[in-house]
Amino acid sequence: MSAPTEIPDVVRRALDLSRDRGFITSTRNETGRLLATLAASRTGTLAELGTGCGVGAAWLYSGAPGSARIVTAELDANLAEDVQRIFSDVDSIEVVSGDWSSLEQYAPFSLLFVDVKDVKESIDTVADLLGAGGIVVLDDYVPSAFWPPITEGRVDTVREQWLTDTRFAAVEMLIDPYASLIIATLR
Question: How many domains does the chain have?
């Protein structure tokens, strides 16, 4: 690992909430460091679809310039309230209680972290949410050594579409031996 082992305080608070809630599928630190790195190059509004315990939003915040705004949507109202509390001292993060579509009003996004299966399956929806040159990070893929990508014995048509759609320059990255993600930039 080439990244520092320290975890930013805001990320630590989100990870603590994840542990308290028994939420074991929060954003991996490797993915988080990538989000922070990408956020450092962005201005405007950054977003996360699928807040969970706020780990992804915290990583975005840890890298984003001070002028950037981060919005995140969580369907579970009680969980959204808990996440709002951990970000209470962070003016640039807004936690919205609602499904992912409640963030459409904040678009276009310069960086969008998507951890909602239905949205990943709708490349047109994501393209409409991004500004010119906008970047989307799609999390939670199982690596495939084959092309076209195979998941559970079938062609992963969603991943295939993301990697071949000419509106995007896209790449799949291995995060660890059991996880990959897709980064796509709107041309």
Answer: 1
Other beta carbons less than 10 A from residue 90's beta carbon: 16
Q: Are 186 and 132 in contact (CB under 8 A)?
A: yes
Reference 44, options 170, 137, 169, 130; nearest CA is 130
For 171, the token pair is 């790449």
- 2 is a domain residue: no
d(CA 105, CA 9): 29
**What is the C-alpha separation between 97 and 126, in angstroms, rounded?**
20
Give the residue numbers spanning the domain of 133: 9-186
Question: Contact 64/41 with Cβ under 8 angstroms?
Answer: no
Model confidence, pTM: 0.93
The DSSP symbol for 26 reads P
The tokens describing 164, both together, are 């071949």
3-state secondary structure of 142: coil
Question: Could you tell me the CATH number of the domain that includes residue 135?
Answer: 3.40.50.150
State yes or no: pLDDT of 117 exceeds 90. Answer: no
Taking each continuous run of H as one helix and of E as one strand, the counts in the chain are 7, 9
For residue 182, is it within any domain?
yes
Chain position carrying tokens 């409409």? 128
Over residues 29-80, the pLDDT tens digits come to 899 999 999 999 999 999 999 899 999 999 999 999 999 999 999 999 999 9
